[in-house]
Design a protein that fits this description.
heterodimer, A: alpha/beta, 2 domains, 4-stranded mixed sheet, 8 helices, B: alpha/beta, fumarase, lyase activity (chain A), Fumarase class I alpha subunit (chain A), 4Fe-4S (chain A), Class-I_Fumarase/Tartrate_DH (chain A), metal-binding (chain A)
Chain lengths: 280, 193
Amino acid sequence: MRIVDAEILTESVAKLCWEACYYLPDDVLAGFKRAEKTEASPIGKSILQQLMENAEEAKTNHMPYCHDTGMAVVFVEIGQDVHIIGGNYLDCIQEGVRTGYKEGYLRKSVVGDPLLRVNTGDNTPAVVHTEIVPGDQIKITVLPKGGGSENMSAMKFLLPGEGVEGVKNFVLQTIKDAGGKACPPVVVGVGIGGSFDKVTSLAKHAVLREIGVHHPDPHIAELEKELLEAINDTGIGPQGLGGTSTALWVPIETFACHITALPVAVNIQCHAARKKTIVI
Amino acid sequence: MPEYRLQTPITKEDIKKLKIGDTVLLTGTIFMARDAAHKRMVELLENNKPLPVELKGEVIFYAGPCPPKPGQVIGPVAPTTAFRMDPYAPAMYEYGVVGTIGKGPRRDMVKDACKKHGAVSFAAIGGLSTILSRRVKAVQVVAYEDLGPEAIRRLEVQDFPLLVAYDSNGDDLYQQEIAKYENFNQKTNKGAV
């Protein structure tokens, strides 16, 4: 058994929060570069160039790339041989988010009660997904999720007979409805299968996959390619101001499901596709 | 496409010459307000009460910044999704706001209001927050301080880069541009991105 001090979790989460917001991942920057090369719209091309400049400035000056530093979504995989001492696990994660958003000068974008809508002032609570896995390590990923793209995400139960065509239509319609509101170029996380709760979780996890990496199953990888092409044929383009680069990537995750059901979820990730991982 | 350098207050003549797709570098005073502030202001207008800040003839920037680091005027800032302010926009234009700055497409009610009241809706690039924050030279919270990042702020901006998205003719840049690129790859036989 490995003993890990709770304080290490807090410090790690705090650092992940601001690092995620300041430094756009390399796979996203590479995605911008590819898109800029092929973008047909002059407005779209100029937007992509400015986004790359913005990323560079944010990195150089250690500033948030986007002012919407999101609601923090924290994914934790805890090895079953780890014992956390010196504090309550969930409290430590929340304290990490609190510290990270304060010390990183990130925007506090969370209201406590969804109807009373009073800002909590420290960006907590974060959404925390915990999984127990084999081993004695802890893997933490922070995904600061912006509101504009999250708002445009959607879920639907299709009839099983609607099959792959039904999935394609639903994903495409969701992207068309979102248009420029979701801050394209976007990453389109898709979940297929599972239950009501599972399918949205699949879509969210899909967003974490590196741009450029396809699903291991050939028929799902094929669907990812087809959807990417179809989405970029919508004409929506960067910021919805027209163009051929609406999506940078379409990662799909799947799970088994009930004989009656074909659930599909689309989690849209804006161009500020931030994510940062640490393994303790 | 024409490029204009405009100084606030934007005159009715300025508004008339602006067409969708025009680039504007805006210098002067603008006011930052978003969801929660709009909800309060439109309630005041509906009850014939004065707004906490005079906004007649002014430009509203739909945004909420990050806190500034020591030595910064303002933290990173860029427009939020304009669509969420659509239900409030016609009342604000009718009151006398001449321009709004947001990101993303808007509903017909906004197009109609721009046409009716001789106003425009500008687009700035969503998420261009580090770059845009450098165009802000001064900032002051002027109302609704309790709303934190959603408080109303007065900004002094210099050469703030904008695109005219909806003009006073009721034209729509988003619709026009998307139509050009729909199925573009098939039309030109180019490979998809």
